[in-house]
Amino acid sequence: MGAHAAAADAAANPYEAPARDFARRVADSFPAGARLGIEVRNRSTLSAGDVAAVRAAFLGELAERGLSVDSSAGVSADANVEASATITLSENTAGFVWVAEIRQGDRSSVMLAAVPRAATAPPAELSGITLRDALVWTGPEHVLAAAPFPASFSPTAPTALPPASLGAPSSAALGAPNVLLLVNDGVEASIIDARHAFKIALPLSSSAFRDTQGALAWSGSSLVTTVNDEACTLSAPLAGTQPQCRVDNGLVTSPAPTTQFGSQRADLPSACGEPRVEFLAAGAGDYTQPDSIRAYQMLDGAAAADSPALEFPGPVLSLQPTMALQSEPSSAALAVVHNLATGDDEVYEISLVCGR
């Protein structure tokens, strides 16, 4: 591509030229005429228009270099595709980071490109909002959701459960706040106290399985848990109470991810003294990838990033605002993350902080 064409690309979109440069590097990994499956994923704050420009420039450059590109096949096992590459558009506080995961037969490699933000796209830090995370629990249990445990409640185990069903917690409680966990062992769902030997079994064995969706939240003085199509309510204090359960189709859904953020979202009250709609949302990747959480605000009906991203070692499985009993919602949430390296589930307290 000549200097005139490169200048035209930069004028059309500031990210087209870096996309073509990155595509040329990726193309060098493949033999001439190779048939490729290409997938482009956005996990950054690039707009839909910018992503479309990056994708078009990237695929166009590969085609100009004599490669046969199938972007509809992505990384699927297509008999007509000899190799594949997944291009992930991510970012950090310094700028954008583009990652190419290249696969050819039984060989794989990773290529990175650092791309500065365009002058017309100021960093999210300028909003003055940052996110802080604190690991409060980790363990081998499969956690569906987490909720705060009010300090005024006794951790005494329910009398409805025999002593043999209780034992020392197998997980690590690392710090505040006290949390209740909704867990699933593939047979039944249970509510446990992460700090004490406290467990309430829920009669949900018919719908409890590995990919179960769940939620756990306070409503007045009652704890409401949902697992797939069943809801159970327990009155406070929890000790000695029996869950009252009912079927309610559609209680827990898994919305299809958008190109900007995924299905896990937690609405927060107005932040930093400004009357605006603020929420936290996870990335749009799948459950086999590391994930991130970022604060957003609604501007003219569209979501705009309002903070730098917090990176996590695996997918975010649940994200719920922190609220107990009649308390006003705080600018915080509890996130459940599956750590891909250790295989454990982790619970983080995510706090929204005003000012730098």
Structural write-up:
This protein is mainly beta and 356 residues long. The protein has helices at residues 3-12, 16-27, 48-64, and strands spanning 35-42, 68-70, 83-92, 95-104, 107-115, 129-139, 142-148, 172-173, 179-184, 189-193, 199-202, 214-219, 222-227, 230-235, 244-247, 265-268, 278-282, 291-299, 302-305, 310-312, 316-321, 332-338, 345-354.
Shape: elongated
| Low-pLDDT runs | 1-10, 73-79, 120-126, 155-170, 250-259
| Oligomer classification | single chain
Q: In the CATH hierarchy, what is the class of the largest domain?
A: Alpha Beta
Q: Tell me the number of helical segments per DSSP (H or I, 4 or more residues long).
A: 3
- Straight-line distance between termini: 43 Å
Q: Write the CATH architecture name of the largest domain.
A: 2-Layer Sandwich
Order of helices and strands: HHEHEEEEEEEEEEEEEEEEEEEEEE
Helix percent band: 10-25%
Largest sheet: 5 strands, mixed
Q: Can you tell me the number of structural domains? A: 3
DSSP E strands, number: 23
Q: Structural class, please?
A: mainly beta
What is the residue-averaged pLDDT? 74
Q: What Rg, in angstroms, do the CA atoms define?
A: 23 Å
Fill in the CATH topology of the largest domain: Double Stranded RNA Binding Domain
Strand content: 35-45%
Spatially, the strands of the biggest sheet line up as 2-1-3-4-5
Topology summary:
Layout: H1 3-12, H2 16-27, E1 35-42, H3 48-64, E2 68-70, E3 83-92, E4 95-104, E5 107-115, E6 129-139, E7 142-148, E8 172-173, E9 179-184, E10 189-193, E11 199-202, E12 214-219, E13 222-227, E14 230-235, E15 244-247, E16 265-268, E17 278-282, E18 291-299, E19 302-305, E20 310-312, E21 316-321, E22 332-338, E23 345-354
Parallel strand pairs: 1-2, 1-3
Antiparallel strand pairs: 3-4, 4-5, 6-8, 6-23, 7-9, 9-10, 10-11, 12-13, 13-14, 14-15, 16-17, 17-18, 18-19, 18-20, 21-22, 22-23
Helix pairs in contact: 2-3
